[in-house]
Amino acid sequence: MLLCSVKVFDHIQSIASSGKKGLAVLLDPDKLVSKSKRDRLLNLINASPVDLVLVGGSLIVEDHFETITRAIKDACSKPLVLFPGSATQVTQNVDAVLFLSLISGRNADLLIGQHVIAAPTIKRLGLEPISTGYMLVDCGKPTTASYISGTLPIPYDKPEIAGVTAMAGEMLGNKIIYLDGGSGASRPISQAMIGATRKCVNSPIVVGGGIQNEKDARNAWTAGADFIVIGTAIEENPDLLFDICAAKQAFA
């Protein structure tokens, strides 16, 4: 199914270092309870040049997490990576887990506390942890992620804050820097902020939240993102995947 013995981070790093651009789709298990909807979306993903599938969310309210992640794993031909909202969202039904430290906030529980709880389970299940400096950005409206985390996002018009925060995260050993406007963001993260972050770190940069169309995707990649993540827009219009994949191919 996946990459054989190749680690997911090595796959990400290979794309980033090649100068190509990566595309990840974020799937919320709560929104994929319907088998027909899930099958249609996964068929589109499997047939497209999507590089990664992320699964998870800031708040899982339905009691279907294990069942749905297992169904996604069984049907998905792409590397499947857990994007956990808490230590309770750890499952064996993935290839790797983003080990997220919320470096944009000052909530100690999300800098190290939840990690202490989750680490033994991740090790026992043999999952690949990918140390990720996670940064929330204010993209126009409060998001579930900022509410649940109890932290203030980085102001939209302060790219220098994002840059030095990412720099500190990289110095602390984060392998990936993830800039996120949050699910349903009103606008995408600015090119200025992505560019400032790119100047400050060598690590792969992932950008998500508010990417609504091909232009938004192209702008993020051009500014310096190695990967973009699309979620809500694809849930609402799965055919949008074709347009964004076409934009991705232009960077090949």
How would you describe the overall organization of this protein?
By secondary structure, this protein is an alpha/beta fold. The chain has one domain: TIM Barrel. The protein contains 10 helices and 8 strands. Strands 1-2-3-4-5-6-7-8 form an 8-stranded parallel barrel, surrounded by 5 helices. Helix 7 links the parallel strand 6 and strand 7. It is globular, with a radius of gyration of 16 Å. The model has no long low-confidence stretch (mean pLDDT 93).
**Name of the CATH first level:** Alpha Beta
Q: Quickly give the CATH architecture.
A: Alpha-Beta Barrel
What's the SSE pattern?
Answer: HEHEHEEHEHHEHEHEHH
- Indicate the low-confidence ranges by residue numbers: none
For the secondary structure, the number of strands is: 8
Number of helices: 10
Please name the fourth-level CATH homologous superfamily.
Answer: FMN-linked oxidoreductases
What is the global morphology?
globular
Main beta sheet: strand number and arrangement? 8 strands, parallel, barrel
**Which range does the strand content fall in?**
15-25%
Name the strands of the widest sheet in spatial order: 1-2-3-4-5-6-7-8
In short:
The chain is α/β, with parallel strands linked by helices and 252 residues long.
